[in-house]
Amino acid sequence: MSEAWDNHPDEYAAGIAVSIDKVWHAVNDLYAAAVVLDADAVKPWELPIYGGRPVAHSADADPSNLPLGILEPPGVSQAAGFLASVSFDELWNVAGAKLVWSGWDEAQVRQEFLDHHRCLQGFYGQAATAGHAVVRAVWA
């Protein structure tokens, strides 16, 4: 993971990596608003942030808190499809008020989440087009 972190700026610039600092759970909460918009949804909203199969980094790893996960190409395509079709504005209308913490500027927070959404759209779209899997790493 240390080597991956060292390579991250180059991978980010190349469009093959994306980062969400400290608010990945809140981005997931934004996407969870899709359930309100479409009660029949089969949870594709979980894929961009928490999707995939957990991968243990050692034999004694805590299975409830694994930092790595892999989303296979079919899941990547499903995540890309969700991100391409969901309306950020509609998600924000449902969940935005819960994501603006006390004392924060709503327009600035909305822009931050919109930036994350656009970045994830591009990342998953590119990965799906290439038929790639996605590896998720949580460095907390």
Shape: globular
Largest sheet: 3 strands, antiparallel
Could you list the spans in which at least 5 consecutive residues all have pLDDT below 50? none
Strand content: 5-15%
Radius of gyration computed on alpha carbons: 15 Å
Mean pLDDT across all amino acids: 86
Helix/sheet category: mainly alpha
- The helix content, as a percent range, equals 55-70%
Number of helices: 7
CA distance, first residue to last residue: 12 Å
Count the E strands: 3
Strand order of the largest sheet: 1-2-3
Give me the strand/helix succession: HHHHEEHHHE
Keywords:
mainly alpha, 7 helices, 140 residues, three-stranded antiparallel beta sheet
Model description:
The protein is mostly helical and 140 residues long. A 3-stranded antiparallel beta sheet has the order 1-2-3. The chain contains 7 helices and 3 strands, in the order H-H-H-H-E-E-H-H-H-E. The longest helix is centred in the C-terminal third of the chain and has 25 residues, at 106-130.
Summarize, please.
With 140 residues, the chain is mainly α.
Furnish the topology, listing elements before pairings.
Blueprint: H1 2-14, H2 24-32, H3 34-37, H4 47-50, E1 53-55, E2 68-71, H5 73-85, H6 88-99, H7 106-130, E3 134-137
Antiparallel strand pairs: 1-2, 2-3
